[in-house]
Hints:
44% of the residues lie in helices and 24% in strands. The chain is built from 5 helices and 4 strands, in the order ααβαββααβ. It has helices at 2-20, 25-34, 55-70, 99-107, 109-118; strands spanning 42-50, 75-82, 89-96, 122-131. The protein folds into 2 domains: 2-34; 42-131, 2-Layer Sandwich (Alpha-Beta Plaits), CATH 3.30.70.100. Strand 2 (75-82) and strand 3 (89-96) form a beta hairpin. The chain is an alpha+beta fold. The protein has a 4-stranded antiparallel beta sheet with strand order 2-3-1-4.
Amino acid sequence: MMIRLKLAGFVLVGIALLLNGAGNIAVAAEKSLSQNKPASTYVVMATITVKPQHFAQFVQETLPLIEKSRAEAGLKIYQLHQSHQNPLQFMWYEHFDDKAAFDFHVQSSHVSAWAKIVGELASVQLVATPFHFVESGVDIVAPQN
């Protein structure tokens, strides 16, 4: 799938060159590449492991959270994933417009209420780690000593 998408991008650039002339190579290539780069870069991945005896309650509490969270302004992607190896382990992939949208999400009434309940259901508490999008060496941040 990824190869097809990249090839499609090159085909689009080639068509743009034919239609617009060789003078617009940089513009056509830039448009093709920019379609793959997200508009912002605030991404959070969070994991939690649920106690076996609380699995059903966790699911019951979490499914409405997903629906309410996806309705928030500033939230682009909100996905819950379940581990193949350990069905008690879950991971969220969350993509926000910016840190302010993430802060709004965390402070929302539905997330606060969910966190109070789910904290008791977990054997390994929720751990959330923010990330930023990396497209080139310029985007990579060196560790601070």
